């Protein structure tokens, strides 16, 4: 099982590379192709749309070819897309290839998360946080690698590096044995019942649907808020302080460093207080830290608020996936796919709204909008726990009735 955790961590690290790589070389790419920044933004958007598509179709592919071959195919597609990028083809080819690369990382991320949630027997929450840490490591490391390659004049080798790394992980995934997980990774053959009729595909029950719907809205709001903060922190602080540009950029580093530190520290906290209590602390805590940020009158207090917000937001995504999946036994791929897709939509939609708010209204409107987002998240968390308790109680009642019949 340790081998699986390690390979899952490497896949998430690769996904960290994949999500950030285009942005890290956007400047030299614009100069090399003689394009505008909006064209570079289109390339990023194409990859993002591919990611959403990959997240949604991942369960369908698993049903056809099994989990091992699905992740192998996803890694192969992503590696090939990066190799194509590295040779700097025609710009239209770049735009056409980007969705395939996005689909590769979307499929891999969804299936790995659902495997951890649905098939690991212990420490699921801790494992999810660990792989999220490696995602952060990848997102932090690739800008450093790209910066070095840009300085040496071979910025396109950033794509080559990612492609080689993806190929290495792909081969490990294909040939390594993961012990008791190996049968689960194969395509599951559906045996016919004695009457010869096909078994119906599992569907969400009436008690599961409210949790899935509320969870989808939660992920839409959470990922949207998480994307707004690093993208607009320098802008917000430029309007609330007199800091210079380099110090303003530091706010993003503080936020991401706090998120990474939060994920690392949560691996020990989960074992002590449990992931449900930690989820409550994080959701309620981020509301109060952003409230502090909105009321802040000094630079130091603002940076403290940003740090605490990042610290508390670090484990919300992974623990949220686990809690919402708890009542969806046998449907982990579909549930994870829905939640991640809604998170992706929030990550695209909410930053656009906040950009409009910053353009049209005083910065205080943006600050209080962020506070409102975290208040909504805390309310949605309470609703998730309410429906989760109802589903668990019903499941317990069904078990009691079944034992009485026996």
In short:
The chain is an all-alpha fold.
Helix and strand composition category: mainly alpha
Low-confidence stretches: 399-406
Main β-sheet description: none
Helix proportion:
over 70%
Average pLDDT rating: 85
Spatial gap, N to C terminus: 36 Å
H/E element sequence: HHHHHHHHHHHHHHH
Compute the number of helices. 15
Shape: globular
The total count of strands amounts to: 0
Radius of gyration: 22 Å
How large is the share of residues in beta strands? under 5%
Keywords, separated by commas or semicolons:
mainly alpha, 406 residues, 83% helix
Characterization of this structure:
With 406 residues, this protein is mostly helical. The protein has 15 helices and no strands. Helix 1 packs antiparallel against helix 5, helix 6 runs antiparallel to helix 10 and helix 9 packs antiparallel against helix 15.
